[in-house]
């Protein structure tokens, strides 16, 4: 068995894979929320940003080539993250085949206890998000190339906007605990700095979630229209 096989077959290896793929996803979220906030600059700026993503790397790369490479890396990271999470969960279940009669929540948080169902909710949201803004299958007013119009059309539907807000809150819980756990898995764990690490995880989570939820709220309030 090679070192790679040994790593992916061990519980520690699966946790490392989950941490590394999670870090890639967090990097994407930071860039994504930064770009999305350009919607407050108006349709011209936001559509120029969206078009810039499609022409990234030109003329060396063709239209949308780098964008699809980035999407492929992101989707591979999500798939690896989901697989590792499922494998770790199965290992946890096999390690305790008989449920606890009474489980006392010691040294844990609500975010930690909702990681599994939160991950499922986020995965469902990602699928819907692609169908909405990338492929336009569920967007009520989709116009290819007009990203600003597509965002406004989607979030003008209250049910869609509220569902997005719920998904972002689930993302926040998942992200906060995931950042904390990933640091532990990667060896960044010391009593002297743990409080600082927890604060940094909370601050980054707050910035990302606040940035995302600001957009549907602005559309519902008529600030972005």
Protein architecture, described:
The protein has 225 residues and is mainly alpha-helical. The chain is built from nine helices and no strands. Helix 2 crosses helix 4 (65-95) and helix 2 packs across helix 8. The longest helix has 31 residues, at 65-95. The N and C termini lie far apart (58 Å).
Number of strands: 0
Query: Total helix count?
Result: 9
**Radius of gyration, CA atoms, in whole angstroms:** 20 Å
Shape: globular
Helical content (DSSP H or I, runs of 4+): over 70%
Order of helices and strands: HHHHHHHHH
Mean pLDDT across every amino acid position: 85
User: How would a crystallographer describe the biggest sheet?
Assistant: none
Strand content: under 5%
**Structural class by sheet pairing and helices:** mainly alpha
Q: Name the poorly predicted regions.
A: 100-111
Distance between the termini: 58 Å
In short:
The protein is mainly α.
What's the topology here?
Elements: H1 3-9, H2 11-36, H3 43-54, H4 65-95, H5 110-113, H6 115-134, H7 147-155, H8 158-185, H9 194-221
Helix pairs in contact: 1-2, 2-4, 2-8, 2-9, 6-8, 8-9
Question: Which terms summarize this structure?
Answer:
225 residues; globular
């Amino acid at each position: 068995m090679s070192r790679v096989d040994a790593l992916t077959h061990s519980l520690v290896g699966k946790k490392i894979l989950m941490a590394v793929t999670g870090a890639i996803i967090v990097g994407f979220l930071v860039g994504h929320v930064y770009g999305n906030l350009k919607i407050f600059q108006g349709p011209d700026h936001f559509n120029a940003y969206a078009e810039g993503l499609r022409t990234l790397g030109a003329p060396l790369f063709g239209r949308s080539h780098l964008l699809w490479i980035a999407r492929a890396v992101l989707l591979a990271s999500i798939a690896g993250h989901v697989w590792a999470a499922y494998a770790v969960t199965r290992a946890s279940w096999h390690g305790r085949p008989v449920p606890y009669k009474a489980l006392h929540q010691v040294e844990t948080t609500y975010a930690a206890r909702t990681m599994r169902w939160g991950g499922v909710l986020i995965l469902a949201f990602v699928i819907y998000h692609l169908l909405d803004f990338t492929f336009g299958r569920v967007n009520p007013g989709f116009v290819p190339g007009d990203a600003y119009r597509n965002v406004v059309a989607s979030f003008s539907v209250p049910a869609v906007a509220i569902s997005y807000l719920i998904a972002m809150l689930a993302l926040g819980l998942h992200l906060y605990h995931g950042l904390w756990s990933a640091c532990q898995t990667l060896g960044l764990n010391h009593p002297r700095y743990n409080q600082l690490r927890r604060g940094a995880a909370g601050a980054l989570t707050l910035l990302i979630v606040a940035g995302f939820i600001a957009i549907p709220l602005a559309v519902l309030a008529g600030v972005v229209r």
